Amino acid sequence: MILLKMVEHYIELRLYYREIETHEPLYVSLAELSDVLYSSTRNVKRHLKHMEEEGLIEWRSGGGRGKRSALVFKKPLEEVFPPYFREFLQQGKYKEAIRSIKRDGVPAGIRKSCYNEMMKELSMPVMALGTAERDNNRTYSEKLASKGLTPAVVSTETGKWMIVDEEQSDPRKKGTEEDK
Hints:
alpha+beta, 3-stranded antiparallel sheet, elongated, disordered C terminus
């Protein structure tokens, strides 16, 4: 959980300072970083230390009051964000995964690739895959249809999909046991 939180702080900084390129120094104060991370300067120091240990940043303290410190982002957002997103999927935290890609500043390319990955995770390859894969998926859909099964949304809360018996899902087909 600490690793996930640390990466979350890194992403927060990258999104806030998105105009700063990887390996380009950003001169900033701890007070400014505490505003961005909604944390005390003491906690920001701890967060920076963890990020530096993981190789995400380089931090050079300004050395004195009023002197700005240098923060260097060592990894691009494109390298850090997808594994962070996958961690939510692996934990079944679909709401958090969706919130993460909907955040302001997340580049469109990252958003699209993460969305496609989530669709694959939720067994929705028709939307997520290319034309060749869709043709293979039709065979799967035809097999389901021949068994009277159709994909149906089970919960908007989790975003999970499952296969439901067509007769049970269609209210017009409901009847008593004697009707069957």
